[in-house]
Design goal:
This protein has 397 residues and is an alpha/beta fold. The chain folds into two domains: 11-46 and 295-392, Alpha-Beta Complex (Aspartate Aminotransferase, domain 1), CATH 3.90.1150; 59-293, 3-Layer(aba) Sandwich (Aspartate Aminotransferase, domain 2). It is built from 15 helices and 13 strands. It has a seven-stranded mixed beta sheet, sandwiched between helices. The structure holds pyridoxal-5'-phosphate.
Length: 397
């Protein structure tokens, strides 16, 4: 028997979501998540993935995963501290630290998990976290979990950050204060102003935490946003994803040995959730090797991003102020945005509408993510379809 209270709660909730247009529709892929995908028996140009370098389907990573699976099996068998630490987990962490230019690194099962665990391991009740208002959901949840006071700073507004930092410091109310930001903001593709942030952090003794989920493998010739500004010794937490440009699954923090030692004994997802599968750890490690040996993956990604943005702009679209391959096509109106993406999918381009509450009301957009795996022909085809549909619904002339 199911609980009547629960059923009522769920049915009312689902009804409300539906009436607000917030109910998720989830498409199922019957192919690998590559530059072209199969959805509902149809082949589409895929501009919706975070698979920036095309690594999710790279033969070198697949081979590494197969070899590790043959040697270690499909599961790690336990949490890291009990007996789930395999030598490949340590090798992966060494590889990450080397790539990020830090003393050490710690890997988690996902970047979401990583933010939950790493923020709350360091920040406590009696502390404060200054958070950019557009930070990712996992940062927001990690901050909440920590019990620290959360102070919002206006998006990328350094005057506001300085004001909040000054007030928090002068109040004397907090044991320690952290500033946390996305390295690359995933909705607009803008890059955190790290040189100014580092200066403010130094002035007010802030701990600094950069979530570079969309920066690693992308900005700074692939080394990420912190490295792009040469600030490896100014940022305490260089956090990143193994699931986006790296193409696998997982998250990590790179930082000082002291920080990583602390996280290995205090971050709860590390202590209480089974470690990355051997295949995932080995594939992720191989991704760092590949990025290091073949800078052309990153070069192609950046070229494809710049080309695609320029072509859409030429066609008359508003692509916002992205500084990365993330290509928002801003329509504004929510219904128009839904209609636009529906028609694009019908015509052969897979993108998702992003509307309120993910972005502010009246800032609806579709977000296109060209990758290193897209050919110029695919991008040209996509631009032609964007143009056709854009004219059809009166977005461009
Ligand atoms: C995607 C993303 C995450 C979560 O990454 P997963 O590895 O998929 O859990 C965390 N932070 C930011 C900024 C992200 O964009």
């Amino acid at each position: 028997m199911t609980s009547k209270v629960l059923t009522e709660f769920l049915e009312t909730g689902l009804g409300e979501l539906k009436s607000k247009g917030l109910l998720n529709t989830i498409d199922v892929l019957s192919s690998a998540n590559g530059p072209k995908i199969q959805v509902g028996g149809k082949e589409l140009i895929n501009l919706a993935s975070n698979n920036y370098l095309g690594f999710a389907t790279r033969p070198e990573l697949i081979e590494a995963a197969k070899a590790a699976t043959d040697k270690y099996g499909v599961g790690a068998g336990a949490v890291r501290t009990i007996n789930g630490t395999l030598d490949i987990h340590i090798e992966l962490e060494k590889q990450i630290a080397e790539f990020k230019g830090t003393e050490a690194a710690i890997a988690f099962q996902s970047a979401f998990n990583c933010n939950m665990g790493a923020i709350s391991a360091v920040m406590k009740k009696g502390d404060a976290i200054i958070s950019d208002e557009l930070n990712h959901a996992s940062i927001i949840d990690g901050c909440r979990l920590s019990g620290a006071k959360i102070l919002r700073a206006k998006h990328q507004d350094m005057t506001d950050l300085e004001r909040v930092a000054k007030e928090a410091t002068e109040s004397g109310a907090y044991n320690k204060i952290m500033y946390i930001t996305d390295g690359v903001f995933s909705m607009d593709g803008d890059i955190a102003k790290l040189p100014e942030i580092a200066k403010i952090a130094e002035k007010y003794n802030l701990i600094t935490y950069v979530d570079d989920a969309h920066g690693s493998g992308v900005t700074g010739n692939g080394a990420g946003t912190v490295a792009a500004f040469g600030l490896q010794d100014k940022i305490d937490f260089q956090m990143g994803c193994l699931s986006k440009a790296i193409g696998v699954v997982g998250g990590y923090v790179a930082g000082s040995k002291t920080l990583i030692d602390w996280l290995k004994s205090q971050a709860r997802p590390f202590l209480f959730s089974t470690s990355l599968t051997p295949g995932a750890a080995a594939a992720a490690k191989e991704a760092f090797v590949l990025m290091h040996e073949h800078p052309e993956f990153n070069k192609t990604l950046i070229e494809n991003g710049n080309y695609f943005k320029a072509e859409l702009k030429k066609a008359g679209f508003d692509t916002g102020k992205s500084e990365t391959p993330i290509t928002p096509v801003i329509l504004g109106d929510e219904e128009k945005t839904q209609e636009f993406s529906k028609r694009l999918i019908e015509e052969g381009v897979y993108v998702k509408p992003i509307v309120f509450p993910t972005v502010p009301l009246g800032r609806g957009r579709v977000r296109a993510m060209p990758t290193a795996a897209h050919t110029k022909e695919m991008l040209d085809d996509a631009v032609a379809i964007f143009t056709k549909v854009g004219k059809e619904i009166g977005l461009i002339n």
